[in-house]
Amino acid sequence: MSAFGFDHSYARELPGASVAWKPAPVPAPRLLFLNDALAQKLGLDPAALRADDAAAIFAGNTLPSDAQPIAQAYAGHQFGGFSPQLGDGRALLLGELVDPSGRRRDIAFKGSGRTPFSRGGDGKAAIGPMLREVLIGEAMHALGIPTTRALAVAATGEPVYRERPLPGAVLTRVAASHLRVGTFQFFASRGDLEALRRLVDYTIARHDPELAGTPDAPLALLRAVARRQAALIAQWMNVGFIHGVMNTDNMTISGETIDYGPCAFMEGYDPAAVFSSIDHGGRYAYGNQPNIARWNLARFAEALLPLLADADDEAAVQRVVAQAMEVIDAFPAWYEAELLRGQRAKLGLADAQEGDAALAADWLALLHAQRADFTQAWRALADAAEGREAPLRSLLAEPASADAWLARWRERSAHDAARLRAANPRIVPRNQRVEEALAAATEGDLAPFEQLLAALRKPFDDAPELAPYAEPAPAEITAGYQTFCGT
Q1: CA-CA distance, 371 to 393, in Å (whole number)?
Q2: Coil, helix or strand for 76?
Q3: H-helix or E-strand containing 235?
Q4: Which of 345, 318, 115, 325 is nearest to 238 (CA)?
Q5: Each residue of 326-352: b (16+ CB within 10 Å) or e?
Q6: Which of 487, 423, 457 minimizes the C-alpha distance to 135?
Q7: What are residue 180's DSSP bridge partners?
């Protein structure tokens, strides 16, 4: 296979952070999905990637000549418990592309077989979870939320065994990088300060080059990552997204959303909403996501502290701990500011006033008390701005409950309906639609998947033919809905 133009800075500059490995061959590769628009942004030729031999490339049977696949090492807190070695148990980084805009992007497989980090797993993936990554990642991208994206999915022609045999697949994922909090924890937990220092330098060069050579660069990196995560989590919250498994190995340094396993979009607004089948205690509930992000950042700070002070210098340690805690303690305010900035846009407020946070909070309290659909209720504000309140009131158990809030909202500002529709999506990945599409794809019918994907790429569109994708599931389905990690 001809070269992709790969570089391998991660493997070259971070010895000991990965293991060279090869994907497992598969019997019958078949291309299920190719992201033509993303391929073009990467400087790749979509036509060439659809050639007869492309399936073998994306299934891992035939690699580009300049690919040097590696399994990356990392640690992580999973549901609060620390594992000193996790790593890519079913993923391989093929290399990095520098796209025509000069941005470096990782190109990685997911589901390509066992690695030294598989911990007893088979390293494989099924068609359903890999196509879920496509749907949710492309939806997030269309919503303007930083995310990893799928370049391709290839069927393997072999079964993977979960609760039942399922058809296998390999995802090709594109990311700003796969650096995560757990990458830093891996070296910190081993006391390998030289490797940790190299990792900080590499990360800053890749994601925050303006911080290179600054005093206390690890502390500056912590602040930059915290700022990115504050913005990201606020965006999640403003579209009702629940990640479902916010372990430290799933928090990226780049600020992109990664790993769409037991994720879901909330329908009826409920801060306690949990869909993940493995989140028994609600650790990663919708309303707890900002707190978990702060907790994860505290773990990141702990990993960086050995670079900031000699452990034998108690005064220096206390000083840097206090500095790190200033960042961790500042996170809630950064998050709230980002959240309110998004809420002002979603409320159609052209300027900032002191009572805006209360107006937004009372709106959410109304939605919660009235069991209103989160996405539809926000979208209905555009109709209300045009003097048509019936669409919003129809979503409420007690329509008159909106009277007082709507009066405050109208008094606050004149509202532009077009601006409101541009800020509030009509279409998000409705859980029922996602499950229907994935079930059909598992049985060999890709049409529902392709139709849903086309709709998700136009989240703000009012086209009549998209109406079925804007409707919530029946209450009996929503009440018992669960998501699964797909591993």
Answers
A1: 12
A2: strand
A3: helix 217-239
A4: 345
A5: ebbeebeebbeebbbebbbbbbbbeee
A6: 457
A7: 252
- How confident is residue 485, by pLDDT bands cut at 50, 70 and 90? low
Q: Of 433, 467, 473, nearest to 453 (Cα)?
A: 433
Q: First-to-last CA distance in the chain? A: 30
In the structure encoding, which two tokens stand for residue 252, read together? Answer: 């990226």
113 φ/ψ sector (left φ>0, alpha ψ -120 to 50, else beta):
left
CB neighbour list of residue 117: distance below 8 Å, 6 or more residues apart: 19, 71, 73, 85, 86, 87, 88, 89
- Report whether 137 contacts 150 (CB < 8 A): yes
pLDDT at residue 332 tops 90: yes
The bridge status of strand 91-98 relative to strand 104-110 is antiparallel
| Three-class secondary structure of residue 104 per DSSP | strand
pLDDT tens digits, residue range 422-445? Answer: 999 999 999 999 999 999 999 999
Residue in 395, 403, 398 with CA at minimum distance from that of residue 377? 395
Say yes or no to pLDDT of 324 above 70. yes
The whole-angstrom separation of Cα 223 and Cα 341 is: 20
Q: Which residue has the higher pLDDT, 414 or 103?
A: 103
- In the three-class reduction of DSSP (H, G, I as helix; E, B as strand; rest coil), residue 276 is classed as strand
Handedness of CA 70, 74, 80, 81 (dihedral sign): positive
Rounded CA gap, 482 and 267, in Å?
A: 13
Question: What letter would DSSP give residue 472?
Answer: P
**pLDDT band at residue 38 under the 50/70/90 scheme:** very high
Tell me if 456 sits within 8 A of 138, measured CB to CB: yes
Quickly state the pLDDT bin for 410 (edges 50, 70, 90). Answer: very high
Residue numbers annotated as active site: 249
* Collapsed DSSP state (helix, strand, coil) of residue 487: coil
Is the Cβ–Cβ distance between 152 and 34 less than 8 Å? Answer: yes
The two tokens of residue 399 are: 């329509």
Tens-place pLDDT, residues 149-158 = 999 999 999 9
Question: Helix or strand or coil: residue 53?
Answer: coil
Average pLDDT for 156-170: 95
